[in-house]
Amino acid sequence: MSESVWEPLDNPSIEGSGQTFVLPRQAWPAWAQRSTQFERLWIHCPDTEHPITSSETTAAVVARILTERFDHKDKPRPYNYNYYLIVKSTSGEVLQSGPLRTSDISRHSSQPPDVLDTYEPPHW
Predict the structure, then answer these.
(1) pLDDT by residue (tens digit) across 51-76?
(2) DSSP string computed for the chain
(3) Average pLDDT over residues 91-120
(4) Checking DSSP bridges between strand 79-88 and strand 4-5, what pairing results, if any?
(5) In angstroms, rounded to a whole number, what is the distance separating the alpha carbons of residues 81 and 112?
(6) What confidence score (pLDDT) does residue 48 get?
(7) Structural Rg of the chain based on CA atoms
(8) Which of 39, 43, 45 is nearest to 112 (CA)?
(9) Angle at 19 between CA 49 and CA 42, to 5 degrees
(10) Under 8 Å between Cβ of 31 and 6
(11) Greater pLDDT, 93 or 37
């Protein structure tokens, strides 16, 4: 797992909310904001009854970010998807993994999956 530190989200109440939604661009991690290829980012914040488990870490996974990247050179399947685990250490430090291949949707696609358009803005 990479040791990249990620700034906390503006509204900490999403932790444990059980919500999945598109992250507003201003809430994107700095590395995504610097890129010209990212189209959208989603965040899933599991509730306490349905935590995300991963063999990538023993820390508590507080969220998972799914990224949609568009790369012309990957035509005919220019849409690329990865996810990043967001964990909180026992000391309260927030860390993010490096990119991991998603199995929820096709990693490379000719168009965005329709299911990604169904997520509403967060409910605070």
Answers:
(1) 777 766 667 788 889 999 999 999 99
(2) ---EE-PPPS-GGGTT---EEEPPGGGS-HHHHH-SSEEEEEEE---TTS-B--TT-SSEEEEEEEEEEE-GGGTTS-EEEEEEEEEE-TTS-EEE---EE-SSS-SEESS--GGGGGPPPP--
(3) 83
(4) unpaired
(5) 9
(6) 75
(7) 14
(8) 39
(9) 125
(10) no
(11) 37
pTM above 0.90, yes or no: no
Is 25 within 8 Å of 68 (Cβ atoms)? no
Asked if 18 contacts 46 with a C-beta cutoff of 8 angstroms, the reply is yes
The residue behind tokens 């989200």 is: 9
- Extract the tokens encoding 111: 């168009």
Structural tokens at position 20: 């999945």
